[in-house]
Amino acid sequence: MKALILAAGRGERLQPITDTRPKPLIPILCKPLIEWIIRTIENTRLVDEVIIVVSYLKEKIINHINSLNVDLKIKFVDQGSELGTGDAVIKGLSNIKDIDEDVLIIYSDIFLSNWSVLRDIAVIDDNVIVGYYSPNPSNYGVLLIENGLLKSIVEKPEKPLSNLINTGIYKLRIRDILENKDVETSSRGEIEFTDIINNIVKHSRIRVLDISNRTKWIDIGLPWNIIDANKIALESLCENSIKSIVEENVTIKPPVYIGEGSIIRSGSYIEGPVYIDRGVEIGPNARIRPYSVICSGSRIGFSVEVKESIIMENVHISHLSYVGDSIVCENTNFGAGTITANLRFDEKTVSVNIKGRRVDSGRRKLGAIIGGYVKTGIHVSIMPGVKIGSYSWISPGAVVKHDIPSKSFVKTEVNYFIDTLHNEIFDE
């Protein structure tokens, strides 16, 4: 059996996070999404070759995968122009000789709480599409089924006839895909894999496997989904696993994972579930609140509070700062007293600008979404739902109320007016 991982998309709705890293390298517990998939495929022992379709920032994906010590044959296919998921699948399968083989197809922007279900999918002796019951089916492809078999997929219907959605996981005969690949391009000018699936069901059966009772599933399509996915992963922590130096007068409430080479300095308070990767320095007197993830090489300084946030690699958060319900990308540096606000005055849910449109996050608390290599000066305040693009600098004392494009310099100036006081004031 072959496995095909679709990893070519730009992830434009995830900007500025995807300015500096492709979507498959977004970390869940500091491990990239695609690595979770690769490790699971390796553990099934059912796949003889993994094909990864890449395009956007492909070198970063290739370099990361090549750095993994996995017992798998891995091949990369460059999609070139990103013409849709169907185009990616066709290009990925184009050089396979035995088209009567099966292929396990997985989108690289999904996360499962229980990845072992992939093995159960792989051993089914039939075409399979994997479904999941969602409270918001209009945001996804909806599966219409009859007697356990797929009738069709309806993409993002206004009035869905079912809550069972397409998860982006399939096991199909390669021949069935290639013999039904001729479809019209969508309104976006792309070849959609779901259209190929709808062609297949006209000639062959596809079983629907509902995994709703066996795992949590999430699509990483919007920035706050990264917080949600990490929260799901953190729920799997059961007890403390501490491989670091912990100084005196530190409180650690389980479950907390702390990696090798990290230092937790005196007076710090960590309340799990929390994941702290290797080579991290916390404190002194820092507070790390539940559902926080802090990745390798980061530094959380004196009297800094981090709450339900994702701190990526090599981030430095200086003393007296607060980071709540936020995402801070790699190599960002916060000046002392930088604050991310996470709650509106009216306590309504926070909306975020996504590709020029305001999208309700559904979260009452949501802080900032900060790209890689950002620098803030001292006493910077960032309002709820604001995005700061990668490589931007924010000058001291700024109050950031609106999104900042990448490679911007936000400069605040205070003009002092000095009046000449009457001499009699000083003569008194």
UniProtKB/TrEMBL annotation:
Gene3D superfamilies (alphabetical): Hexapeptide repeat proteins, Spore Coat Polysaccharide Biosynthesis Protein SpsA, Chain A
Segments forming domain Mannose-1-phosphate guanyltransferase C-terminal: 270-342
A Pfam family hit: GMPPB_C
Associated pathway: Nucleotide-sugar biosynthesis; UDP-N-acetyl-alpha-D-glucosamine biosynthesis; UDP-N-acetyl-alpha-D-glucosamine from N-acetyl-alpha-D-glucosamine 1-phosphate: step 1/1; Nucleotide-sugar biosynthesis; UDP-N-acetyl-alpha-D-glucosamine biosynthesis; N-acetyl-alpha-D-glucosamine 1-phosphate from alpha-D-glucosamine 6-phosphate (route II): step 2/2
Catalytic activity: alpha-D-glucosamine 1-phosphate + acetyl-CoA = N-acetyl-alpha-D-glucosamine 1-phosphate + CoA + H(+); N-acetyl-alpha-D-glucosamine 1-phosphate + UTP + H(+) = UDP-N-acetyl-alpha-D-glucosamine + diphosphate
Single GO BP term: UDP-N-acetylglucosamine biosynthetic process
KW Transmembrane (keyword) present: no
Name of the featured protein: Nucleotidyl transferase
Organism this protein belongs to: Staphylothermus marinus
Phylogenetic classification of the source organism: Archaea, Thermoproteota, Thermoprotei, Desulfurococcales, Desulfurococcaceae
